[in-house]
Amino acid sequence: MIFLTIVLFILILGLLVFVHELGHFVAAKKAGMSVEEFGFGFPPRLLGLKKVSGRWKVFFGRNRTSSEKAGEKTGAAPTVYSINWIPLGGFVKILGENGESREPGAFSSKSFTRRFLVLIAGVSMNVVLAWVLLSVTLALGLPTQIADGEQLSGGARISSPQVTILYVESESPAEKAGLRPGDAVVSIDGVKVETVQQLIDTTGQKAGTQVAYAIKRGSEMLQINIIPRVNPPAGSGPLGIQPALVGSVSYPWYQVLYRGAIITFGLLLQILYTFGRLISSLFTDHSLAGSLTGPVGIAVLTRDAARLGLSNLLYFTAVLSVNLAIVNALPFPALDGGRVLFLVIEKLRRKTMNVLVEGYANTIGFFLLIALLVWISVRDVGRYSEQFSHLWQKLIGLFGI
Question: Does the pTM of the predicted model rise above 0.85?
Answer without folding.
Answer: no
